[in-house]
UniProtKB/TrEMBL annotation:
One of its GO terms (biological process) is triglyceride catabolic process. Residues 223-458 form the Alpha/beta hydrolase fold-3 domain. SUPFAM superfamilies: alpha/beta-Hydrolases. It comes from Linnemannia exigua. InterPro entries: AB_hydrolase_3 (IPR013094), AB_hydrolase_fold (IPR029058). It comes from the Eukaryota. Pfam families: Abhydrolase_3 (PF07859). This is Alpha/beta hydrolase fold-3 domain-containing protein. One of its GO terms (cellular component) is cytosol. One of its GO terms (molecular function) is triacylglycerol lipase activity.
Length: 585
């Protein structure tokens, strides 16, 4: 209150106010008679017949009733939490948000405590407190978002490194034969972008000998908003994939913004891929006899890097072998905060819609151009508890840095959604999984629509390109596997996709693409040189019946989720359009 009276609300004024209140309380205890002023003496006489226990319970009950008087008297808005959580998210995801929100608030509260052992202890204590008071956790997190810094993000998002959480991850994870870090040295003299040392973490179920003979690897680029989270922060699901697939998981600890803004981290990820290909895996401890089959993957900001690395691979000269597949989990394909779907992007989506059977009611529910409801998902879910609009703004500013020459509206290494068709047509098998209520979901929808359009025009294989939108969840559901058992099924489904993506290819007949004929003079002989461009060989998707059943039950196609545009718009106007849905996850 004092800060508002002074016109300068701040933590400093809050601290002064707390000190003033404590001093006034001290004076009241020492200078005022023990029975209190005359009106309180009568109350004191009345309370003599009650025990201290009864007085304590009565006082706490009175405080609780006063704190919730607006609820008891019906003075609150019309069920805001029901609209935000019960009607938007599934029960499983809502429980995960509750736990992660409490952890975030606890880690924010303890971030300035020294030494580390005391900070770790108090962060656990505060987190438990916020579990019992979830609204206080939301208030704390929202307050921190107003002054968020890279240090704040790292303290909060890297909570998976807390000793207690690491112990929980280790207990629940499969037993691995190999989990270690190695450092790869990159130099400009060898053709890399910078002189640097990049640490990678290896997760593998088998023995050292089995690892050295591996013919397939999963190259992971971990997310973290471009500013935080090492591979160890993703260990719960990376270890699960290693145990499920029996393939090495190679996770890159690239340099983070804002100390290393775009394109430093991206270049490191590309250079790691390039050196793995150049050494046939010897740089990461493989025997190097054959080039391993590589599946490239990333989540969130790591998904952004995965697509950008794919663009760099395709454009690189001399030609680099491409990964056999690209798998992205809730990627950010557009580094920007536009709140409307532009007509050109909407046209691409509508083109894909027109190619498939769409129920008439869904077509009517989907907003079209010019109706005022073509909000993109960043606008529809700008109040998201994980990726709110103010938080996204901070992440993007730190990632892009102060480069005034950078055009983030067209640079497809910054925003892969702008990747031209000539590059998209050369993409390998691509799989994207994201949340229906994720602020970034439209990035995936538009990118997949453009990818399919480009491949169709080039006559390339697009039957195995897949977009899966998980019903009733938002961002960061992979981070909930350690605290929400229901989310483990999502990790297993993605692991099945890796197994199918990296399966040993069957023998195929030679296929040919476009050819051009050129006469070459060599002495007295006329030679004919045929320049052949091989057709793109398919990597057909052959998933198990269990995975297909899971997808049918828990995911939605890219068309039906456009209902949320209408719902979000009408919600803002105070028009209730929801039915009480029970979530699956």
């Amino acid at each position: 209150m004092l800060g508002h009276i002074a016109g300068r609300p701040s933590p400093s004024w809050d601290k002064i106010q707390a000190i003033v209140v404590l001093l006034m309380s001290y004076v009241a205890l020492r200078k005022v008679p023990a029975a209190g002023p005359r009106p309180f003496q009568r109350i004191h006489n009345l309370l003599k017949k009650y025990t201290p226990w009864q007085i304590l319970i009565g006082a706490l009950t009175t405080l609780y009733a006063a704190h919730h008087a607006d609820l008891l008297l019906g003075l609150t808005p019309a069920e805001p939490e029901k609209k935000m959580f019960s009607r938007r998210y599934t029960p499983g995801y809502t429980r995960g948000l509750w736990i992660l929100s409490a952890l975030d608030a606890g880690f924010f509260t303890s971030q300035n405590i020294r030494p580390k052992i005391l900070r770790d202890t108090m962060s656990a204590v505060f987190s438990i407190f916020y579990l019992f008071f979830p609204k206080r956790a939301v208030e704390k997190n929202n307050m921190m978002l107003k002054v968020i810094t890279a240090t704040h993000m790292r303290r909060s998002w890297e909570k998976m490194l807390h000793p207690v959480i690491r112990l929980m991850t280790w207990v629940n994870a499969p037993k691995l034969g190999i989990r270690r870090e190695i450092t790869i040295r990159l130099t400009t003299a060898e053709g890399y972008h910078s002189d640097s040392e990049v640490t990678i973490t290896i997760f593998f179920k088998g023995t050292e000998e089995e690892y050295a003979r591996s013919e397939s690897i999963i190259l992971d680029i971990p997310g973290g908003g471009f500013v935080a989270m090492r591979p160890a922060c993703h260990a719960d699901y990376l270890m699960a994939w290693a145990g499920q697939t029996n393939m090495p998981i190679i996770s890159i600890d690239y340099k983070k913004a804002p100390e290393f803004p775009f394109p430093y981290g991206l270049h490191e990820c590309f250079d790691i891929y390039k050196t793995i290909v150049a050494t046939k895996g010897a740089c990461i401890g493989l025997k190097g006899a054959v080039l391993p089959r590589i599946a490239l993957t990333g989540d969130s900001a790591g998904g952004t890097f995965a697509a950008s690395v794919m663009n760099m691979i395709i454009e690189h000269r001399p030609v680099l072998p491409k990964p056999v597949g690209l798998l992205m989990v809730y990627p950010c394909m557009h580094v920007g905060l536009d709140f409307w779907i532009c007509n050109s992007d909407l046209a691409v989506i509508e083109e894909e819609i027109a190619r498939g059977p769409i129920p008439e009611d869904i077509l009517k529910a989907r907003p079209g151009r010019g109706d005022g409801m073509t909000l993109n998902s960043k606008a529809a879910f700008m109040d998201d508890q994980v990726l709110g609009s103010s938080f996204l703004r901070a992440l993007m500013v730190m990632y892009i840095g102060g480069d005034t020459k950078l055009d983030h509206k067209s640079d497809y290494l910054v925003s892969p959604i702008y990747t031209p068709d000539r590059i998209l047509a050369q993409y390998p098998r691509t799989y994207i999984i994201t949340g229906e209520k994720d602020p970034l979901v439209d990035d995936s929808i538009i990118f997949m629509a453009k990818l399919r359009r480009a491949k169709r025009a080039a006559g390339a294989d697009l039957e195995s390109d897949t977009l899966r939108i998980v019903s009733g969840v938002s961002h960061a559901f992979m981070q909930m596997t350690g605290v929400v058992p229901e989310m483990k099924e999502l990790v297993r489904v993605v692991g099945e996709e890796f197994l199918d993506m990296l399966k040993t290819p069957k023998a195929q007949e030679q296929t040919w693409g476009d050819a051009s004929v050129q006469s070459v003079k060599d002495g007295d002989s006329d030679l004919v040189q045929v320049n052949v461009r091989p057709a793109v060989l398919s990597n057909p998707r052959q998933t198990s019946a269990a995975v297909l059943k899971w997808e049918q039950e828990y995911t939605r196609d890219a068309v039906t989720i456009y209902e949320h545009r209408r719902v979000a718009y009408l919600d803002q106007l105070g028009i209730d359009t929801h039915d009480d849905d029970s979530g699956h996850i």
